[in-house]
Amino acid sequence: MKMKKMALGLLIVGAVSTTALAYAATRPVDIVSKLTGKTVETLYQERAQGKTYGTIAKEAGKLEEFKNEMLKNKKEILDQRVKEGRITQEQADEIYNSIKNNMANCDGTGSQRLGQKYGVGFGNSQGKGMGNGAGLGQGMRRGFGNGFNRR
């Protein structure tokens, strides 16, 4: 009986770790690093000086590629949340279409705050941490918050 509980615990930890790794592999910092060839540490330093990842990508002539990768990343996160039952497909479609429309005006400064009004928290934490916020209020829990702000 004790072995079954231990095996079940390991299975759950493995599943959670796999989900966390999937999210971690698509952080904005990783996307910019891949596009620009800069290290994550260098990018963190630039962020600490006030630059957005979009600005860094724009300076490297990679803004359009960055926007495309970010849109793809956000779609994957939304699809996963639908699969997990955290949001409906209709909610995911509304968020995705809003983000896609806003990205058309994206200039790399981060002023759009894409997805923030929905409380989905797509990652305003410089890629540090995996905040499992409930999406409370006006995007109070940033990072990769697992909630949807239902009003």
From TrEMBL:
Keywords: Signal. This is DUF2680 domain-containing protein. Residues 1-22 form the signal peptide. The lineage of its organism: Bacteria, Bacillati, Bacillota, Clostridia, Eubacteriales. It comes from the Bacteria. InterPro entries: DUF2680. Residues 131-151 are annotated as: Disordered. It comes from Caloramator proteoclasticus DSM 10124.
